[in-house]
Amino acid sequence: MLYYVIDAFTETKFGGNPAGVVIYENLDEEFMQKFAAEVRFSETAFIKKIDNKNFEIKFFTPTSQVELCGHATIASFKALLDSHAIEDNNIYFMKTLAGTLSVEVNQSFIIMEQAEPKLGKVFDDYDYLSDLFKIDKNQIGNINFNLVPQAASTGLWDIMLPLKTKDALYALNPDFKALAEFTKINLVGGVHAFTLDTKEGIAESRNFCPLYGIDEEAATGTSNGALTYYLFNNHVLTKFNQEYSFLQGYSMGRPSNIITKLVNKNNPKVMVGGKAIILTKGKLY
Fold first, then answer.
1. Terminal CA-to-CA distance of the chain, rounded, Å?
2. What is the pLDDT of residues 258-278, one digit of tens each?
3. What are the angstrom distances between the C-alpha of 62 and each of 20, 42, 79?
4. Per annotation, catalytic residue among 29, 43, 67, 200
5. Looking at the whole model, is its pTM more than 0.90?
């Protein structure tokens, strides 16, 4: 079995978000979970070929299986390209716990369809949120738009946490134990904090997911997909079939660039994409 370590949402080694990728024929989920716990990437993807156009992909954090993972999907199709299981400039489909989704590979740029976008509960206890993240509650929100903390999903539920300034974003210092309990109670994976106070891209973000053993991630495709839909519903983003750039990982020294796109104006969906670079590959025995 081939095993890869791939940095996703970057063109530079040690940038972006690293993922483990295993291309397998016959593994059980108990082994997958133990392997993911052993290598301890935020997510490890396990790919099984169905036919030349279709693949089944299972995603595991160090502690549990998750329905979908954006950066591990980008890494997966980079591995499939490298192993000659797929060809460039083509469209493929992946079967996941979030449904069967399309993935387009174009000049090594990989862009994936997200699951049906949804918005959920609004979180208006700013006193609690400010204590949880150790910030001034007056920094929650946005100066130009009426943005509030709200759950959103394009495959995985996260709480979108708007912040007024980049300084506030970088100052976040969450109580990870309390945050894990808070997200568990509210049936979300984590919190995706962001600010529109950036000179590059649409927004800069930080993602916290201690419930799944991930204190902070450098690049989260599904979370930025959900953020794209959230910003669309709040009239920040209005154009379809246009690429939007989201920055993440800069506070961790792992700069990442996540590209999103709104498609299908009559029934909006989100695409998320980026590039990836192979750090190492080998055999899994």
1. 7
2. 999 999 999 999 999 999 999
3. 11, 7, 21
4. 43
5. yes
Q: Are residues 96 and 128 in the same domain?
A: no
Residue 133 main-chain phi, psi, to 5 deg: -105, 0
pLDDT value at residue 250: 96
Give me the domain span that covers residue 278.
2-114+274-283
pLDDT tens-digit readout, 89-139: 999 999 999 999 999 999 989 999 999 999 999 999 999 999 999 999 999
Distance separating alpha carbons of residues 225 and 156, to the nearest angstrom: 10
Reference 22, options 67, 57, 66, 70; nearest CA is: 57
Number of domains in the chain: 2
Mark residue 120 as left, alpha or beta (left: phi above 0; alpha: psi -120 to 50; beta: remaining). beta
E-only strand ranges, 97-240:
99-106, 109-113, 118-122, 150-153, 157-163, 190-195, 203-209, 214-217
Q: Which residue has the tokens 């300034």?
A: 165
User: Catalytic residue at 43?
Assistant: yes
Q: Are residues 92 and 155 in the same domain?
A: no
Cα–Cα distance measured from residue 168 to residue 161, given in angstroms and rounded to the nearest whole number:
11
